[in-house]
Amino acid sequence: NLVSADYVTGWVSAYIGIRRGSHDSQKLVDAIGELNRSSELARSAWSQGTPVRKDLSDMMSLLGEAYLELGEIEKGQIALTDAIELGEDSHQLLARAKNNQGFADILRADFGPKRERRKHLTHSVQKHLEAANYAISAGDWRELAIIENNLGSLFERLGDLASARRHYLAALSLIDERDDPLRARVLFQNLGHIYQYLGDYSKSRSFLKEALKIAGSETPHISARLHCRIGSTMRLLGEPSNAIAHHKVCAKVAGDIQNA
Predict the structure, then answer these.
(1) Nearest to 99 by CA among 62, 44, 55, 49
(2) Greater model confidence, 165 or 13
(3) What mean pLDDT do residues 120-136 have?
(4) Cα→Cα distances 45→8, 49, 159, Å
(5) For residues 182 and 216, is the Cβ–Cβ distance under 8 A?
(6) Of 43, 61, 159, 247, which one's alpha carbon is 20 to 30 angstroms from that of 236?
(7) Residue 22 pLDDT more than 70?
(8) What phi and psi values does residue 102 have, to the nearest 5 degrees?
(9) Do 4 and 52 meet the contact criterion of CB atoms below 8 Å apart?
């Protein structure tokens, strides 16, 4: 019916806005407005007997994500609590909402009192593990790959490098590099860092070079950082000439960016 069509249009528009504008505050504000209007229409349709509960759950999860991207943690948490209540019988929706709740705890760790940082990161791990279980139950491997990468990052921040490596590798096993090169590049880069910290410099070099292949010349700032990291790994491997070569490329690319 017309009400359903109206809420779907706004919902889709907001989804596109959030995915394309995660670092653009105006696009996020616009998306929040769209989601608030769409959710009101959906609730009206629901009150008339239209089965839109799962759609509402997805909208609330998106709304929570948008608020969190703007740093509005409490508003984000309220929307995510609503998403979980509405999505209680859909493990796919619960995985997404729990993943976003884990993001809320990361923000609390980053912007709250330093003494509470570890507590919030530990809470985030718990939320992400819950999200992972729901994603596995739903067979949502794409969401699971995102969650596993987040867990790797969390354990890295908590200083548990072995667990970080395990989750990064799990995430990598769930994606196809050809279909999702950006995520593959991030995971190769993360694993390169972890293996360097763990002292396995050969594996560090291999993963960092894979990341560099994907980054190429289209993302010069990332390429510069990768060349610097590879240079450090080469130095630790006892290959000073190769280390110097990579650091020179790093310096050149960084200089070109500054002068652009």
Answers:
(1) 62
(2) 165
(3) 98
(4) 11, 7, 49
(5) no
(6) 159
(7) no
(8) -60, -35
(9) yes
pLDDT digits (tens, 9 = 90+) for 218-251: 788 899 999 999 999 999 999 999 999 999 999 9
**Is residue 159 left, alpha or beta, with left meaning phi > 0 and alpha meaning psi from -120 to 50?**
left
Q: In whole angstroms, what is the distance from residue 111 CA to residue 32 CA?
A: 22
* Residue 148 CB partners (closer than 8 Å, separation 6+): 132, 167, 168, 170, 171, 174
Taking alpha carbons only, the member of 200, 203, 209, 206 closest to residue 227 is: 209
Whole-number average pLDDT of the chain: 91
Q: What distance, in Å, lies between the first and last C-alpha atoms of the chain?
A: 53
* Pick from 9-13, 96-100, 189-193: least confident: 9-13
Contact 228, 250 (CB under 8 A): yes
Give the integer Cα–Cα distance in Å for 46 and 50.
5
The pTM of the whole model exceeds 0.85:
yes
In sign, the C-alpha dihedral spanning 138, 140, 145, 150 is negative
